[in-house]
Amino acid sequence: MKRRAFAKRLSLLTAGLILPVGKLHAKTYLSIEQARQLLWADTPMQAVALTLTKEQAKSIRSSSGIRVRNPQMKLWKTDNNGWFIVDQIIGKHENIDMAFALDGDGKVMGMEILTYRETYGFQVNHPKWRAQFHGRDHSEHLKLDHQIKNISGATLSCRHITDGINRLTQTWDQVLRHL
Amino acid sequence: MQWLKHWFSRWQATELEASSTLAPGQLSRCQALLGTFVEVHLKDPEAAADDKTLIAISQAAYQAIERVQTLMSFHDPRSKLSRINASAHIAPLPLTPELTDVLRQALTLSQLSDGHFDITVAPQLIAQGLLPEHRSKAEQQQPVRGSWRDIELTESSGRHWIFFKRPLQLDLGGIAKGYAVDQALDAAEAMATKQLGADHALQITVNAGGDLRSNHWQGMHVSLRHPADPQQLLGCVMKNCALASSAGYFTEAATQLKTEKTSAIIAPHSREPLALQQSVSVFADNCMLADALTKIALLHPQADNLIPQLGGQLIRIDQSGQMTQGPSRADSI
Questions:
Q1: What is the pTM of this model?
Q2: Closest-CA residue in chain B for A137?
Q3: CB B22 to CB A34 under 8 A?
Q4: Which domains does chain B have, with CATH numbers?
Q5: Assembly ipTM
Q6: Higher pLDDT residue, B192 or B14?
């Protein structure tokens, strides 16, 4: 465990040196406790320690099409067999911490965004990515990068949230319902 | 480089914050709605409102937004708008009060802007892959050539009706988000009055991806994005209760289609996508108006004179981050 923590710290440090990480805009909304209150009110629940095995993660990936980034789940089981899950969704330009409520049949009853972080840093410092703003002469770059986005926020894609929900409902179907 | 980024974000992914940063009497929520992230911020200066009350107030705001979404979504084939698009050219269809509000405002602005604001450009957005196609193969063969002039709004037996003089595809994307913000703020204020009493001054702000309205906007600071560098934020003081921003950037869907020229903003007269490297922000008395005026600001050649006459105050930010503030309505009169 110590070796893992060391490796993590070392890799973070190296990554920090190699990659030009920009400022991150982070926004915090609800705390986990507030989200729990909002989604489950006073329904009693117990924390469940669960780390998905490699096989489980692989099987969830193949059925949902979404990679399991963190096998260590943060979850609570309610007295009426529902679930309260805190998880992270990783989009193209953002990391989103979310809380989900699943009922006894694995149906999503509600979700709340807890923290939203933009991770533009890498691309913005990349000259090719910047080139998208310099008119049609750089149209090859537009085709190459596949990174272009309506920054003003008018049409931010919520597809990654849908992906995250698919991954979690598959996790429920394959693992949680048997617990 | 891509693998390194993925590898790095994998490490980042493990940090989950557990502590609450909010003081008592405050609540901030964020939901994915209207194709963007919608924030509701509530702040009770007296810190008297408890979490349950604040949750109920925020819930009222989100329900209002969901209602607008179910009525006016182009993406949802079962929405009221999709049903209008499918058959309003065959026979007149009755409208809900919300759709009447939005369509009236849209047509007024089309008239006043000489057609530079037009809600009938959806076929061009479908062609670019920015909106889904709901029509049958046979219907797609018939070209849609109508404009806002082919929309007829009538009133009879106490109801409002819509009729298309020829087949049209309406998209309310340029105005409905602002309207949803207005509705959310109204609903939250009504719920706050019910829960806390009429003289309790709860501060409410609704922000749907840059379309923002607040009931305590005086002296409030907002950040506008640099059009060429999304990380750079330019500060600005609110000049009215509602603010909306738009930009004619290239969009993500464009790269998937491998077309060169695409943008979510279509110039109604030429029906060509606009790829203008600048952003515009408009302050107005309500968010629906601010939202619609941003499109006129990008498309109308005399926008700088027209926007104040229509009740907005315009801010342009060019590619170098230079901010130009236009006159307010009071200045122009």
A1: 0.80
A2: B260
A3: yes
A4: 25-74+173-209 (3.10.520.10), 85-131+147-164 (1.10.3980.10), 217-333 (3.10.520.10)
A5: 0.75
A6: B192
